[in-house]
Automatic annotation (TrEMBL):
It comes from the Eukaryota. One of its GO terms (biological process) is response to stress. InterPro entries: CS_dom, HSP20-like_chaperone, SGS_dom. PROSITE patterns: SGS. This is SGS domain-containing protein isoform 1.
């Protein structure tokens, strides 16, 4: 179920907040919208009990293929590839820097204080 709110002519600008697919189902009749002078409060009511880890629905791409005939390193590489492809530019830069530092030997040893 999509979630979409539009604000028209707020100090001469239009705004839109959209979530194309929510994590789980909501009950639209019970949801609330409160407009205050400097903010808007949107309360979504879940159709079923339980915790949502995220507002957005995400495919479970992070599950590793645990087939015994497959190479475990290949599964980890697939996981890293999915994480890299799905993240924003800042995360891509962070992953690339960590990989480069590790390959060049510049990576700090997180356990150096404990040895």
């Amino acid at each position: 179920m999509p979630f979409d709110v539009k604000f028209h002519d707020v100090q001469g600008k239009n705004y839109c907040c959209a979530v194309p697919k929510l994590n789980k189902e909501i009950v639209p009749e019970k949801c609330k919208l409160i407009v205050k002078p400097k903010r808007v409060v949107i309360t979504l009511i879940k159709a079923s009990k339980g915790k949502w880890l995220d507002l957005h629905f995400k495919d479970d791409k992070l599950k590793l293929n645990l087939d015994k005939s497959s190479n475990p390193i290949a599964g980890i590489m697939d996981l890293m590839k999915n994480m890299y492809e799905d993240d924003d530019e800042e995360m891509k830069r962070t992953i690339a820097k960590a990989w480069t530092d590790a390959r060049s030997g510049k990576a700090a040893d997180p356990l150096h204080n404990y040895r």
